[in-house]
Protein 1
Amino acid sequence: DAGITQSPRYKITETGRQVTLMCHQTWSHSYMFWYRQDLGHGLRLIYYSAAADITDKGEVPDGYVVSRSKTENFPLTLESATRSQTSVYFCASSEGRGTAGADTQYFGPGTRLTVL
Amino acid sequence: TQLLEQSPQFLSIQEGENLTVYCNSSSVFSSLQWYRQEPGEGPVLLVTVVTGGEVKKLKRLTFQFGDARKDSSLHITAAQPGDTGLYLCAGLNYGGSQGNLIFGKGTKLSVKP
């Protein structure tokens, strides 16, 4: 299917386990982003990528690892999950034109992660 | 750290009423965006404003970018239940990359029939 997809949609894991959240987009967008959304904090950027093999930290990168070996995929790994990482995670992509301010970011449906 | 303050945080109104939500900052932005998010889904872009003083209309929604490019407002005329959702503003720094988009915490709107 065309668009941006995330998997899994729901995940329950235990403290200390490694978890990988997947994100796939079919538009060949240059930029991809990972956000977490928590009550009282809004959307906070974890990591972003301007192109394959280029990644940068966002506001809250600690405890997360990303990679982007292919343009269309941008997995997010929690190396050793903690309860504070319980959240809803959104992946997004954008073309990266930026000719007049911010590009449109296209968001996936989110992954609800619970760390017990 | 740049912040975007949205107000009100919550708004519950009856169908047919008008409302305005605000997005304010002490920082200047090159552009401001408004997104709407429905429960269980990701945010969807409504509009991008890039010129100070700019006004854009999207059916019953009117968006304004402040003259000083530090604030924005969203006005909804004759609200309908379908307008229910979380409204997020997002600002981009001057010279910032697309990774420097800052989101406000959102205004949760409920429109009752």
Protein 2
Amino acid sequence: SQQGEEDPQALSIQEGENATMNCSYKTSINNLQWYRQNSGRGLVHLILIRSNEREKHSGRLRVTLDTSKKSSSLLITASRAADTASYFCATNDYKLSFGAGTTVTVRA
Amino acid sequence: DAGVIQSPRHEVTEMGQEVTLRCKPISGHDYLFWYRQTMMRGLELLIYFNNNVPIDDSGMPEDRFSAKMPNASFSTLKIQPSEPRDSAVYFCASRRTQDSGYTFGSGTRLTVV
């Protein structure tokens, strides 16, 4: 079953702009993870945030987690054409359950 | 490290044939997962192993699917007989601990005609 649900389904932005996508989930989690998938490729792990953490940064990525609202957000700052991809959140109890993903297009 | 290695990258087979997908996880990763990705259903977990032992196979769609992990460095996913609705991209992933990120292979794109 798909635990995480991303919003929006698709996002188109200009290079240099920020991209924000949200993830909602249903049950309690140990951690939440974000992945990127370029067209025709495997998923790449971006960042993991534990249930007792509220915010985490990695380079141009910022992830927040609100366990009371069962939601998370991923912010990509100063987007580049290479950020064009699908982004998935995945909730982790003992196995990862993925949402349907947000497709991000960064226009040059 | 070469990452998670899957073979073949592409497989086209006729309905009714047996298909075997292969995966080599990252050395030292105790968990191995098989996922299937389709446009309609997204990413679905089929089965996962811990220390070569199948832990949860509730996602395996039917008896035509079977998976094995004879040792820590190799796993197979077999479909026999294959059907057109099995067409999908099959991913293998591994992780070191329960609290770590997953490393995915490049996937096997299976087309059953």
